[in-house]
């Protein structure tokens, strides 16, 4: 029975002047399946490296007790190109290889021993053997072959060098070997990257059956639903724990937004009440005569002064409360993302096609005989890597001129690219958001903050200091800040937190223009209800029109 202990108490990790994790505390129970989520660059991989013992915290206490070993899958395989597949397997099975070596050494040491020495040596050997058998060490190499088959690399030769494998193949090899080590604690950094749907399904089934503890960094929402029971969200140096799986996480985030909105509305109401109270008492005070007629001087004069004194006290108290409230404002939750269309009819609908392609050819990379995207159509483009999906998106965006054929688009096109925009690296976050746009920078900054994609402390950062995920947020902010008629989204969920992806999908549902999407996101593809275009080797393999509603 596994007895792993994993806990962090007030753990802080800094790199130079940047605090990645700040006073983080949480624990994971033995056998728990937990996911680590958050934006790219938030500190998820740092957290896994700390737990794996490959990094050390600057402060705090980290407890990792795993009698059954630790398996850590990093995002890249740290071996040279000339290393072999067998070398990668041996690195992942290092704990078991060490046990094997100690068993062989103990066996060799039995020779010539008698009596009490032999008994002690046999007991030590028995303990090593029990550890090895508990980890099913004798079947480890067979498990590697099983995992390679399940992940889409059957029959991979052990003497093949890593330099002859693609990046995706190296990732799958590392994952297969890590799983085959069958450790008590599995630490997996983006395990679903480079896997097709069949391989991800095999991985999910394998992890659900794993008797030990799993801690996986992932952006895959279907994986979160099917495998994990606990969500650890990393952001702004903190780690927040959510129970009840991914659905529980979404429910908690929705409740958190409602709470923040209620707090803001309560603050607004209290501020308005005290402002009104102060104004009412000022008006009441001004209505009290400064001087009374001589006939009622005395008793009546005293009564007037008393009433004036009470009004002054109420005015002073109300003004003090207004000052306290304005000194400690409650920020409203960010407004949900909204995509706005430009060209609509009086009934709010678009009637003209957003794009039309006729016999378009780009070298041997793409050939589209005919394609029409309606004014409010949803088009999903799928196909293997290298099929021409991004090429088609660039043609639609007007960024790539075809060698043959015609391309017509209507109105303004918004393009969320898979690759980064080549901005000057010294731009700050607000400058990048306003890049190429007129108007006042302060107004652009206020607009950016209202979207909730960046906090005030992020505004001073330069692009060179941002993670890829943060730079992707700038692209998304620019896209939602101006109306467009045709949205082109190339892998829009990459490097974004699941919560932001859910918000993005909500914004797309309310958009009244045309949308063309390229995505590997299983949840987004499952929910998609529009036209489906499949590309293969630059050719249209299938075009399936949306079913009539």
Key traits:
six-stranded mixed beta sheet; alpha/beta; Rossmann fold
Secondary structure layout:
Elements: E1 5-15, E2 18-28, E3 33-37, H1 44-52, E4 59-65, E5 70-73, H2 85-92, H3 94-109, H4 115-134, H5 140-150, H6 167-180, E6 185-189, H7 197-209, E7 213-217, H8 221-227, E8 230-235, E9 238-242, H9 245-287, H10 299-327, E10 355-362, E11 366-373, E12 378-382, H11 389-397, E13 404-409, E14 413-416, H12 429-433, H13 441-450, H14 468-480, E15 486-490, H15 498-509, E16 514-518, H16 522-527, E17 531-536, E18 539-544
Parallel strand pairs: 3-7, 3-8, 5-6, 6-7, 12-16, 12-17, 14-15, 15-16
Antiparallel strand pairs: 1-2, 1-4, 8-9, 10-11, 10-13, 17-18
Describe the structure concisely for a colleague.
This protein is of the alpha/beta class and 549 residues long.
Number of strands: 18
The mean pLDDT is 88
- Fraction of residues in H or I helices: 40-55%
Helix count?
16
Over all CA atoms, what is the radius of gyration?
32 Å
Sequence of strands across the biggest β-sheet: 5-6-7-3-8-9
- The tally of domains stands at 3
Structural class computed from helices and strand pairing = alpha/beta
What's the architecture of the largest domain, going by CATH?
3-Layer(aba) Sandwich
Pick out the low-confidence regions: none
CATH topology of the largest domain: Rossmann fold
Broad shape: flat
CATH class of the largest domain: Alpha Beta
Taking the alpha carbons of the first and last residues, their distance comes to: 54 Å
